[in-house]
Model the fold of this input.
Amino acid sequence: MELISIIPDFQPRNDPHLLRKAEALKPVLQYTDFPAPVSCRVNGEQMTPESLKERPLRAGDQAILDFGRHLVGHVALNLSTAGSHQDAPAFLQLDFAEMAGELNENPEDYHGWLSRSWIQQERLHLDRLPAEVSLPRRYAFRYLRLTVLDTSPKYQVVIQGAKCTAESAADWSSVPEKQIADEELKRIYDASLRTLYDCTQDVLEDGPKRDQRLWLGDLRLEALTSYVSFRSLDVIKRCLYLFAGTRFPDGRMAANVFTEPEPAADDTYLMDYALLFPVVLQEYLEETDDAEALADLLEPALEQTDWVLDHWVDENGVMKSDAGKVGFIDWSESLNRDAALQGVLILSLDACAALCEKAGDGKRKAEYEEKAATLRQAAGRAFWSEKEQCFLSGGQISMHSQVWLTLAGVMPEGKAKAAFDKALNLPGAPKMNTPYMHHYYVAALLKAGLKDEAEAHLRAYWGSMLNAGADTFWECCDPDDLSASPYGGMIVNSYCHAWSCTPAYLIDKYFI
Ligand code: RAM
Done:
């Protein structure tokens, strides 16, 4: 499933008033220095950071520096020479990796549909050493491989040290003390907060390696987790104002927003992401009671849900059958998305009703409630199969349909467990491919009262990433195939990805 939308001459419709407020909420980043490496290898041989200084590197030599944890920030290398005078530039290649395994991939072999420019690599010519060399970009990484492409017969390169100045808008001192006696849950909790910390930048990014961008679906899960941890309320509010402040000309919200050089809606629309805006706003207001945000963002929020009702729901209250082409739900080629999208729409209607109530608009509150009730009944009629005892979408059984219609309150009483088991074990059924979908699966298990199953799944799924050496949680994870990628190569996968940070939220809310 490729997600590439290019609308010729697309001009976002900007609201300067909302964008000014978004700008005023821009966070001040906190910088922390991490001297490195914590450990290193030269040509495969393990060394201490001290002995690295005694190990001159010749053409062809490779040093892998391990910074000990995932970091997002700027890197400086302290380099000198050994041997005779430096009579030619030092020619170096630097490869950054979030997971050690990425370094085994050859970038030349990547022919997927995302730009290979995301692969974090630099080539440098250094005319004069010793020098402190500041690298040009912000990197997301734990490992840095330095390959000496050439020196000259007269001299070698020596790594005296390296440093990363890490950056984030999140503040560890805001995180409440949590006693988590269970060691496995504690490790999962810690890794999910590290994930959120590294994604909390100028906006809540999806992934600091890639796309470094504000996506609506990711924002919802980051915000939920932030409420129980860093409480980056201004950044969350800024993100809400950005989505409302730059939109499609017809008022729809883009699935993601660029922030540089100026805020600009991307010309990509994803129905389920837009439908989540009222949900994110409603959850933000639950936390803050922010009257300004309610006044500014109520109408943009309601418009998202109204637009879908007007364009994608048939006269029987059912999602039209080709809705999937503008929906995301999960990275999956074979998934029929209609039933899941109906679930998201129902939750969006519930959020609209709650927002209208907050705004004191009883008339519209009642209208949204009535719509939601109609769509729930319609969903039961259109998607529930008595024969199969689960939901079908376009004739297909998937976990995605069971999950979203459970979250929407459509699953018949007492039927969830059997329906989930059926979808999970059916050969050929679409798999859940992302932590985004797995989060909603855990949420649906909880909603259906299956708390033990929810906890077991959280431990197994997120635990599988830790067992594979993760410091932070990933964009996609198939425990049966850790090299799986929706993009045609794991080298562009993001291994610190916003939408997988929710275990801290789930653990905080349900398991401790
Ligand atoms: C990817 C991003 C993001 C996600 C979208 C749909 O490019 O990683 O997290 O929201 O796709």
